[in-house]
Queue: 4 jobs
Job 1
Amino acid sequence: MAPSKEQMDEMKEAFTLYDIDRDGLIPSSHVGSVLRSLGVNVSDAELTKLSSELGDAIDEKKFMNFAKFKLNETESEEEFVKAFTVFDADNSGYIETAKFAEYMMTLGEKLPEHEVQLMVQEADPTNSGSFNYHEFVQRIMAK
């Protein structure tokens, strides 16, 4: 989904605040701070990659494109988390691993057991019997 006009305005305003010398550029080292000030999650690895591709500074157009991409990614992450809340009866943030596997094989588009087992291993790598679905979604989205 495309960012709203309000979100676009906020991104431009944030860029302008960090463009201290008004040359249309901000230091690549500040991109993470700008995005996080907008509530956009960005990993250090992504910032390192962006900096290596763009050099020491980023212009407004490239910043806006990257910010829109990350904003859409964040919204997708929130949608995944929201989908998991349906199975979190006690609102604990955790889902039982066995029930998760059962849901994946029986509800909606039924997944083959071997695919479900791969998902279960990713969701609950320590075999604790339950997993934090917020963390699971973050790991999946980071790949």
Job 2
Amino acid sequence: MPLLSSIPLVGRLVDAITGASSIPAARRLKSAPVHAVETRPEKRPRTLKHLLRGNHVNHALMYGDDNGRHNHMAHALCSAYLLGATPEQMNLIYDAIAPKLVPWQASPAEIADVDWRDYLGDTAYQRAYVDFFEDVLAEHSVAYNWRTVVEAYLLGQGRPWGDDDTVEVDGDLVPPMFSSRVTPTAPADGATGAAGAAGAAGAARTNTLPDKADRHLLLNSLICGLGHPLIHLAYAYEMDSRVLAMEALGMTAVTYNADYAKKYPFGQLPADDDVPDALRGLSLQQLVDRIAKDARFDAVAPGSRIESLILAPPSPEVATALLEYWHAWDLTGRDEPVQNDLTLRVREAQDVSADMLVASVVPGTHSYNFFVCHALTTSHAVRVLLPEIPPALHVGVLQQWWLLALATYVAVGRPPVDPDNVPKDHRKTKGWTYVEQQAVSSRWSTDEHYIKTLRAFIDAARTWGDIQDRYLNAAVWFADDFEGWVR
């Protein structure tokens, strides 16, 4: 097959028969290295395993006002471990972060497979969701294969219950959780009182997902909460950790936003007339440059909430501009052939997000934006996730990442990206070893986002190569110039 596929005409025929290249996807992007620690006997991986378990047992995923803040403990520990942190350094990180977290609180009720979608978006059920996914993980047919649970509940494709337990929806066999197991009885005509109210409530709580797009409803949640569910899931794949995987599913479930899922359906492609001619064919960096100068965004107050900007823009002009730029990044070969391979688009995302964080900071201001760093760390998570999921989902995940990065850049005031803001002479005496040391032993080594940012630079260079030391230059400058986050 590879030999035949290499012949242009025959290759196209093979692709047409097999569907191998019918959908744009990051086909040349290799899986990120896996650093399984569950069975490693050395002290360093054992330490990480114990600390991750300690965090899982003792600390809630969400905390703060309205449970709006995320537990970053696992992100910091895994990043530090991957950058060579000693057991002592990992324990210091744990001890520094733990006091900010809160214990688990009991959920109002347990969750079962007949109602697991009823409480999506409710952080009060975070404990119940983690328990539910762990119960599924422990089922005999799943046999503690965390990937099976992720494929079923997040990707909508797994069938751990066997073919006899699947249900046909729109011509496809799907797991029972993606069809109705309980059909509510609607109230009879004229029914009133308690019985009528109960029937109406039952009808409103239907457990049916008739729309194919709804099978990916949790994928729409990966970038909610500044993309923390996406980041958490990526670490689950990198560390081959069922603990992190179940936490990621729980975090994804409670950050779900029905309004967001409705407004930005996963994987929905733009129509030809959704992109103005002036934006066609532009690279992602060129789009960012246009956004910085687009006066329509002047109506957005710097420091606006990112979620509010996405869901309720302050004016129709802003709403139109957001959609135009979101649709303008060509992921389907509309304006420029991509040969059905989005690998370079992933690299483009990482290049641009790195520049958005570092090259937008005027020297001497040290004004590294807390929210913009998530564009970079989520781009790394996308790089990890895409090789692990079906190609048909790649465009949708990249769309979601760009929406988060776009809204973040607009919300923080669209600072111009200027490569000259990053001096280039300091890298001559400092290499990647220096960056790794700064991440795990500097005065900022217990700052979760500082560690994750440096780790994202390092991994991007390993993935794509580092032409003219672009990533090294940015990483060294950021490591030395950082004085805390600006929000």
Job 3
Amino acid sequence: MGTQDRLSRRLQVAEPGVEGEPHLPTGQELTEANRFAYAALCGISLSQLFPEPEQRSFCSEFVAGLVKWLELSEAVLPTMTAFASGLGGEGADMFAQILLKDPILEDSPLLITQDLLSFSLKDGRYDARARVLICRVTSLLRVPLEELDLLEETFLESLKETKEKESETAEASRKKRENRRKWKRYLLIGLATVGGGTVIGVTGGLAAPLVAAGAATIIGSAGAAALGSAAGIAVMTSLFGAAGAGLTGYKMKKRVGAIEEFTFLPLTEGRQLHITIAITGWLASGKYRTFSAPWAALARSREQYCLAWEAKYLMELGNALETILSGLANMVAQEALKYTVLSGIVAALTWPASLLSVASVIDNPWGVCLHRSAEVGKHLAHILLSRQQGQRPVTLIGFSLGARVIYFCLQEMAQEKDCHGIIEDVVLLGAPVEGEAKHWEPFRKVVSGRIINGYCRGDWLLSFVYRTSSVQLRVAGLQPVLLDRRVENVDLSSVVSGHLDYAKQMDVILKAVGIRTKPAWDEKGLSLAPGSLSQEKPHQAAATSLSDKTTNQDGQTQGPTPGDTPKAATSPDPSQAQVPEGLDESEGASLPAAASPTESPHTCSHGMGPNPLGCPDCASETQEPCPGLD
């Protein structure tokens, strides 16, 4: 059964009121009392989601428009404005219960979601704050959020199906009026690219029936009539960006500052009313040599991209990581890493001289990538501010230097007046950026939904490479960011044992922070039998405890905890590589044995060949414990 058929059943489409036009119940058809409850639910939810002063105008304008949309009396407006400003108390659940008792909504509360979605899209702009509100209201009405995705997908699918039915007639009509060049331009300026499947033209006479016939099944005849006008066509086109190509149509025409490479690569083929951009932090030999490799399980949206940036330098960084890890095998057999607290104010790491002697291998590519990631982040900000992606919410997810790209993107956007309503959620994993709250505070006005900081206390590699790159003592990828409820700190120490795990364990990490992944997906991209992969509840990996917050109030680098501090080897065995706790299982497995310097490179049973990082497919194999380490 197709998505539209399933949604039609859920919405219980009534007999057409007009021949050829299916009828859906809308918010206007509720009783006046329930329309009041509907508006009040939205007003109170807005005040809870966006209490910041800079968001008050949006909240007020939204409820004012909703009151008009629901055909409520103007006398109700002051009350709704008060709700939106935070004077509604804790009444959201009460109004939700009132709505659930309405005869129209009793069997299908999704109708409120559908109506709120229609209202939010009526001007051709899908504000990220509106989508966050729709998600909140949908949850309060006990409707799974997957149904919202289904609504959004069906809206676009209806346009695609209508286009396919009329394609022959439409093409013949166009060819009579346009030459080949204009025909090509027509396709490009449509709602989506040719491959995307949805095409809405700029010619009013042709596009009006195309839009109206398809949209009527989702937003009703009134909404379809509005979309069928010339203005409505332009409005819908704006949703998907210039020329309809969205981010795939963006090409960096010339070198921008220090940036040499900046391209969006599609991770999925679908189109959606909200998009996701994933940003990789480094490239490595073998499985992780491409930007898309870590994101194979990501299923946040039907329209997902990965940002390809500075591949040359990220590969150099990956090679440096391989080199330092392979060299570390010999070092740790003789000298364990130890922590030394210098004073009550500054906590620092004392690294062994043997490790510092090869630091130059990593420091230079790391420093280069630190600088370039900041420039790429600023450039990404201007791309999003220019609405290259269209008027749609964007979610950003990145690990390591990819998270740093996001950090500087948000920092740049926060300086612009029109930064609101673009970013829905952001997820920064193992971010090598400042962790003090004052640096994250401006992000609250840029990000409409969740700001997630995923960190690992035992990430010794991040500690090492970041030690001289900045004088900043507090690193977000190593500890929580102590701001307010808007920043969700997720301790990934039970999932991530070392920095390289952010790429290798991305599926598990995404689940831990509450991001949807493809069902039954393992690291090799194979479907697993039901129950063979443990499903970790979102955030189970870790909400930051109050003790964490107390420990980090001084703004210092995360000091050692009993679980972080490696113990000295009691009986070193030169035949086995010892790794400090904080190296993940796969990293430990990838270190070659500290035998003779002339020994041939390790070749695994999977045929990966000489590879200091080891074969990713060997990562799950059971390893013998390192002697002298817990």
Job 4
Amino acid sequence: MNVGFRDYRIEDALKISNDLKFLFTSNNLRIIEHEDKIIGAYELANVYDGVELRFGLNRAYRGKGMGKSILGLTLNDVFMRNPELNKAKFFVSVENAPAIRLIESLGIISETEMGYTSNEGYKTYEYSKERREDYVRK
């Protein structure tokens, strides 16, 4: 799959769908493009014990078998641009079955389950730089 990554530009604000608005929490937003269309985005955020990777794909591109390839390429982009990183975490709601299937399809295993709010629990996944080649080849 031919996707590109680039830094967010202010003119992207009108092009980004509502299902990616949750990512606008830092200046580290990276745009994922396919055929000159914004199909997703990711950002890195500092968390209490490392770095969290926040990843989103536009709804129009979900369920089409593209997610695994795009997430693998995203992980590769993260570590190429941030060579000092050794690992990144995903925090995924236990109710978000499609995201859990996607992450686990790359062989990334949940480390813990945590409850942050009264109704929602999260699974924590940790992706290690040492195993990067395992993920980007799949």
